Automatic annotation (TrEMBL):
This is Thioredoxin. GO terms for molecular function: protein-disulfide reductase activity. SUPFAM superfamilies: Rhodanese/Cell cycle control phosphatase, Thioredoxin-like. Residues 39-124 form the Rhodanese domain.
Amino acid sequence: MKYIIILTLLSLNTFGQDLSGLNISIFEKALREHSLPSLLDLRSEEQFHRGHIKKAINLDYNDLDFETLIINQIDKNQAVFLYSNTTLEANNASIFLKGLGYKEVYYLMNGFSNWTASSKPYVSSRPDTKPIAAYTIENLMQVINSNKKVFVFLSAPWCSHCKVMEPIIRKNTGRASGIKLLKIDISKEVAIAEYFEATETPTLLYFKNSKQVWKYTGEIEENSLQKVLFNQAR
């Protein structure tokens, strides 16, 4: 099939890296084209219930009985599609499944957080809550590197300035062409706050072609934000 050819071009042929990683569009297309595929969500049960891709089965990769569960539930002759929080975990699971004798295994690159950040559909057994983003430095940088323009909004639940800024940021990043907006709660993602030296909230970061081109801490006037977005969007 066509996506297998594209897969070879996109995959990293390095030691320890499986050659089954698919970006969102190819993953979605391949899933549609296969008859009776097995779609596995490798995250925790809590994360699964908050939000998951429709028809996915939850088998926590960190469960001590993972091997037994997957052998008992998934036919080795079926195509298996995996996703998790990170590319690394999904890649490791793909290698593990192939070692068990599963011949056709694919995984979603950049994790479920990238799926939701790309406005792809998901279902939830808890409609009153949002999916846990579960950003790590690894999958955050993968999202930044796979998009031309990314605006990162580092916030916290107690931050009154963040609540004021959020609708302004959403409105203006939506108007600027091709900007992906990522909102990250640094009270949960402490490692990301430390990585970007975000000691206060809100901290705003703008990336273009994988490079950080702007950083601002605190509340910013809307016209000043517009100048940054539309100047950098060119």
